[in-house]
Specification:
12 helices, 69% helix, Arc Repressor Mutant, subunit A, 233 residues, mainly alpha
Amino acid sequence: MDDMLWNKWTACSGTSGRHQLERVDDIAGIRKQFADAEPYCRAAIEIDPRKHNAYKNLGLSLQGQARYPDAARSFILAVRANAADPRALRHLEALLEQHPDILSEVPEISDLLTKSRDAVQLATSVTQAAIKDQFEGSQDLTHAEGILLALHRIVLLNGREEFSKDDVRKTLGLSDEDWRSGYRAILRAMREDQPEGAAQIDEKYRNLLRTVRHGVYARTPHGSQVVGDIHKA
């Protein structure tokens, strides 16, 4: 699901009065795009029922169509498929906050929400402990591996889709001097635009990041796969 589309829908549904009336056609078009996305999400689930992102994206598609109870169920299925990724739980909590009537329409949602929170909390604590062990226990951890672990923590544990080099540096617990001594060139080499000063790194660490705007980055599709695979290792 396109996050820009989702943000646009949220903005539209939050308008009121004259502005809302002026954008009815726009909202209808956005709802149609959410509806168009639904069969693709369901097809992805049919191909691989373990793909938690497919359930999450289906939930966003259903939410965009105002099918809120079904959206809530999809978010819960996404948590069940991979509790180590907390994004579906965040979507579920936001949905229930905006539409609390779902709890009375679907009584079991309350219990499932509690179980989802417990699952995410457990998975997060296990992942954080594993990352901490890798940071502190491995003498052979390369700069690239360290940055990859930091990205995992920023994106999947903290829920940040965009981040700066300072976010990575602080997650690694490095001083400015230590960062400049080697990590900065590695991060540059991970960018798909390969700026001047990029280091030579293994192919698997290349093209992980794209530039959103000056000094701010996000994962490429390849980067999403690599960072998301860490907890499976």
